[in-house]
Amino acid sequence: MQHREHTVLEGGEVGRDWSTLASRVDAGSRAALPAWRPPVCLLTTSTERNHDRQDLPILPPVQRFDGGPAVSRRGRVPSPYQRNAFAPGAVAAAALFLAPVLTGAGWGPVVLFLTAILAVIVGWFAVQAKHWWWVPVFTLIAVVWNPVLPLSFAGPVWGAAQPAAAVVFLVAGVTIRVRRS
């Protein structure tokens, strides 16, 4: 398979290689040329794109720290931990940061349901990760934001509790982790 190498010059002009650019610059300003080469793009015809890319090098398999095969050919090794509580914690934090706006628009019960349910989910992930210190925190959040028997909080205490709970959700989402199996 044949590829034609072209260099994209300033102003959108396409030249054959670096020497094309150098030949267009007078001798006095050659010192101002950058030391790096502009990006090279490979232009192919549609029939060339449909064939197998046999010209690409085949990388040897990379071994992970535990002796298993690598996930990608780039040699990236997956993290030995997974953070299951991160996504529900982030969703709950977003809902709690937006709670003053959502409550004013009539979405207050939705915020309560979402916060209470996600507090139970994050609390369960804390139990699975054996991070017992998070269990009473998320039990308290689930009780305070309980939509079935809501507690009547208002004013600056309730306004300060929502962003504080959002920060708790974010911190727990980052710190609760379990070893991949």
Task: Compose a concise summary of this entry.
It is built from seven helices and five strands, in the order E-E-H-E-H-E-H-H-H-H-H-E.
What does this structure look like?
With 181 residues, this protein is mostly helical. It folds into two domains: 4-49, no CATH class; 81-179, no CATH class. The chain is 45% helix and 8% strand. The chain has seven helices and five strands; from the N terminus they run ββαβαβαααααβ. The protein has helices at 18-24, 46-49, 86-97, 99-104, 108-128, 134-144, 155-175, and strands at residues 4-8, 14-15, 40-43, 81-82, 178-179. The strands form two sheets. It has a three-stranded antiparallel beta sheet. A two-stranded antiparallel sheet has the order 4-5. A hairpin with a 5-residue loop joins strand 1 and strand 2. Helix 3 (86-97) packs antiparallel against helix 5 (108-128) and helix 3 packs antiparallel against helix 7 (155-175). The chain starts with a strand and ends with a strand. Mean pLDDT is 75; it is low at 44-50.
